[in-house]
Specification:
The protein has about 210 residues and is mainly alpha-helical. About 45% of the residues lie in helices and about 5% in strands.
Length: about 210
Amino acid sequence: MKQHPPMAVNGNVPPRRLANAVRRPREYLTAEEVERLMTAARSRPSRYGHRDATMILLAFRHGLRVSELCALRWDMLELAQGHLQVHRLKNGRPSVHTVRGTELRALRRLQREQAPTSPYLFTTERRTPMSAAGFRKQLAVIGMAAAFPFPVHPHMLRHACGFALAHARHDTRAIQEWLGHRNIQHTTRYTELTTHRFKDFWQRED
């Protein structure tokens, strides 16, 4: 496809957007970096530190896309049983996920403190559901507060989930179901990144 030069606005040509590979050294976060983001979210002088940290936690634990995260409703959760109904976008496979202790405690606190109540888990100061654009902006600010040397975006949390599960040596098919991938080739990218893959190389030589 032929590339057209950017249009001039008020006599000025805007700078070209840098490619993601230039702006960010990688497209995923480690579990330690996710924890660092959550700590930064809680530490910011904001009334919504717990909400933001909970959004980061759920996006990471369940490999949620930003639109899937913002669409979460309380009726998709069974807190007593520890279950979350995950509805995937992009023709992804829906599933029911287990919700663990850390998440349950965070969600129960979020539910107690939500005033006025809303059908949605994550709401803004205007009491409307958090938008995908709003969370992207919020996460970028949190990333800067956490002193990350590269810009942080929500999809890095989904990739962080896949990487963490692969690093823990979970079955690739199970990871595929957890992330809702229709094609397992989208899942194998995480097993290719794990440090265990080459663990035994040159072992007999040392």
